Amino acid sequence: MSSAPPPPYFWLPKNLQPNDANPEWMNKGDNAWQLTAATLVGLQSVPGLIILYGGAVKKKWAVNSAFMALYAFASVLVCWVCWGYQLSFGNELIPIWGKINVALEQKYLLSQAFTGNFPNATMVFFQFVFAAITLILIAGAVLGRMNFYAWMLFVPLWLTFSYTFGAYTIWSLNGWLSSAGIIDYSGGYVIHLSSGVAGFTAAYWVGPRLTKDRQNFPPNNILLMLAGAGLLWMGWTGFNGGDPYAASIDASLAVLNTHVCTATSLLTWLILDIVFFGKASVIGVVQGMITGLVCITPAAGVVQGWAAILMGLCSGAIPWFTMMVVHKKSQLLQRVDDTMAVFHTHAVAGSLGGILTGLFAEPNLCNLFYGKPGSYTGLFYGFHNSKARDGFRQIGLQLIGVLFVVALNVVSTSLICLLIQLVVPLRMTEEDMEVGDEAAHGEEAYAIWGQGERLENSRISVNDVELGAPRTKESRLETT
Question: Ranges for the Ammonium transporter AmtB-like domain (predicted)?
Answer without folding.
Answer: 32-446
